[in-house]
């Protein structure tokens, strides 16, 4: 029987984020992609993942999915054999002006989604999510926009609430004992490489890698490179 792996998408994302990784990893591991439904907190999302996951599994999270993965590790560390965190973060929303600015920015996108539709919102959102040189890649941008369009403003609102009220995962990182891989697009301006370096410093058994010429949506921008990095690491650790 193949090892089991749970793949957690990020904000407004679904299985399309992981399409190429599932294909590449199929010979060595059985992948399942989580769905958060209408969950409006990181904790509730983690509960849904645990309810649908095997008893023990490899766990990978991208963007918001990385935060959900850390919450899964907080709730049930004994069930996670290996952990992969990608283009993500670990700190709660900042206090004061910085936190207010984040909230205002997220609510502005939500209002655009409600008033003009998910696709129009996505056209603005994607500008900071991929490597600037990939914005002219019509196939890539269309794939991202189609994924966003499969969601609703109501789901968007629930996930925004989850992110604005996200827990501090510093203690989780410090307590991790399973093998952990951190990957990040080198040009990720939303969840920068420096943040992943901070995370790697907190984890006892961590390996850090950068995906060249990739922004925040690294799994879709550079699928072959991401798949190769994950596969190589799993071949060593499993």
From TrEMBL:
It comes from the Bacteria. Pfam families: Abhydrolase_1. Residues 31-223 form the AB hydrolase-1 domain. PANTHER family: AB HYDROLASE-1 DOMAIN-CONTAINING PROTEIN, MONOACYLGLYCEROL LIPASE. This is Pimeloyl-ACP methyl ester carboxylesterase. It comes from Marinobacterium lutimaris.
